[in-house]
Specification:
CATH topology of the largest domain: Rossmann fold
Distance between the termini: 76 Å
Shape: globular
Protein name: Plasmid transfer protein
Order of helices and strands: HHHEEHHEEEEEHEEHEHHEHEHHEEH
InterPro entries: FtsK/SpoIIIE/SftA, FtsK_dom, P-loop_NTPase
Number of strands: 14
CATH superfamily of the largest domain: P-loop containing nucleotide triphosphate hydrolases
Keywords: ATP-binding, Nucleotide-binding
Helix content: 25-40%
Strand order of the largest sheet: 6-5-14-13-12-7-11-10-8-9
Radius of gyration: 27 Å
Number of helices: 13
CATH class of the largest domain: Alpha Beta
Amino acid sequence: MTAFTVALVLVVAAAGLLRWRRPAWYWLAFGVTLAALRVLVRYRSVMDACGLTVPPARWRLSLARATNRPIPEPRPPRIRRLRPTRTGLVLRLKLRPGQDVFDIAAASDRLRHSFSMFGVTSREVRSGVVEVRMTGYDVLKRVQMPAETEARAMRVPVALREDGSVHYRDYRAIPHALTLGATESGKSVYQRNLVAGLAPLDVALVGIDCKQGVELFPLARRFSALADSPDTAAELLDALVARMADVYRLIRTQQRITVDVPDAEIAADIWDLPDELRPTPVVVLVDEVAELALYATKEEEKRRDRIITALVRLAQLGRAAGIYLEICGQRFGSELGKGITMLRAQLTGRTAHRLNDETSANMAFGDIAPDAVLAAIQIPAELRGLAIAGDASGGWHRIRAPHTSLRQAVNLCNRYADRTPDLPELVPFRPTTGTATELVPSAKASPATA
């Protein structure tokens, strides 16, 4: 064997090993170049086979007949840009007259097979321009978030989408959200990623964990308030409703609606206020909403109605006051009682991990994206963390959060403990943050200790 043959064998073996053990490295080293060449060489024939071409214009046909030239071939969408990424290729197409973005979406599976890619998704950038994102490998099998993300105030990266893009939780755009998932589905990991993303920001975290605080109390150093029982949760939610009313009074006094004030400077929520007057935004994380809605006695029923009423009020009115809800649970259905459906209607963002029943999937997506219901109930048990994320616009994506251990989340919360704001309304619910024994929650709210 010649030296060239030996080198070629070694390169092929290395490429095969990388493709098996490190698909991301293989893609960056070999796959992206091969895929780009494959797309460019096969493009016209693939588009023709997938029915994504249009007949030539009449004047071209007339010109060909008049000059006795061959009939022009059907024309595919014009490639405006081909951009490689760390997970695949991004193809921007200019549609021909008569073509529609739904034509591209309907042919996604055929394009995936024809171009030998792992996945193909499309979206309309603007009228007549479609962006086709192609992934070269299963990016959700081993999630690796990019080193640089477009995080900003109240917008944090929490997961990776199946097309290789980052999934953000943007509270300014989607103030309230519902997250569902059965036991061992990855819901807690998703919640930890959310807390980890919010920890460095100027935001107050409020937690309600009725499982005696086993999920959220380890992160107590970054929380301004925590409740570990329905009784404490009822008092905490009442305090948040009172804070919401105070914030609205502040906005009223600072609205600046005089004639000489431009429209853009009139205050309608906390983000229109000057920095020195703006109240701290609050994110409320409810770990298990069913525990707040269940009751066995008349007294517990009164407490339950009080809790659900407070949650509905915060969901309806809290956005402008900078109060955002993250409602989590294993089960979410109308059997939880009155007010649950009203609460769901205010939760714009929906995320569903593996569920035990179809009813919960219908409660999550039935009113916004019916086709996402089938995708949610088909999540296999072995793929922890895989979820379907959608919103009221009807769009949905498969996402998966990177694995974050409880120790990693605790270390991050401890690192940013100095950013925990002290809100007067929430002082009675501030968790103690001393030794490990002091972190054990009590049945009732206790004042903050030095």
